[in-house]
Amino acid sequence: MGAHISIPMYQRAVPQRYRLAGQKCLKCGKVNFPPKAVCKYCLTGAEFEEIQLSGRGIVYSYTVIAGGGAPPEFSEEARCKGKYPVVLVELEEGPRVIAQLVNPPAEGITIGMKVEAVFRKIYEEEGVIRYGFKFRPATSDS
């Protein structure tokens, strides 16, 4: 198993993984996600306001991962599905995040496609199911 994340480290990340909690830098106004100790944009801001991200965005880029290229924690999923899409999403608030795309459209994934975050099981490690966000194509009213 690669990319081991201890239970305490995982629990510290629950707000961002479960609620998409970001932080707005009080110095430059940019939104950091995941949260940082120092703003990754201005590199000097260290005071933040917690904000709730909408979970809405567009596909900035994407790839399809097959069994041989899957990280160890996703090897079971790769065996079950054969391959799965991963997207780089530019959120409405600005940050870009990487996550799996669920329910990809039959006509294929496109750059600029509207997506929305959904809460899903990510993987299981040490007998603990790790939950977090994935994305799906946005419904027409999003």
TrEMBL record:
<feature type="domain" description="ChsH2 C-terminal OB-fold">
    <location>
        <begin position="51"/>
        <end position="120"/>
    </location>
</feature>
<dbReference type="InterPro" id="IPR052513">
    <property type="entry name" value="Thioester_dehydratase-like"/>
</dbReference>
<protein>
    <recommendedName>
        <fullName>DUF35 domain-containing protein</fullName>
    </recommendedName>
</protein>
<feature type="domain" description="ChsH2 rubredoxin-like zinc ribbon">
    <location>
        <begin position="14"/>
        <end position="45"/>
    </location>
</feature>
<dbReference type="InterPro" id="IPR022002">
    <property type="entry name" value="ChsH2_Znr"/>
</dbReference>
<dbReference type="Pfam" id="PF12172">
    <property type="entry name" value="zf-ChsH2"/>
</dbReference>
<dbReference type="InterPro" id="IPR002878">
    <property type="entry name" value="ChsH2_C"/>
</dbReference>
<dbReference type="InterPro" id="IPR012340">
    <property type="entry name" value="NA-bd_OB-fold"/>
</dbReference>
<dbReference type="Pfam" id="PF01796">
    <property type="entry name" value="OB_ChsH2_C"/>
</dbReference>
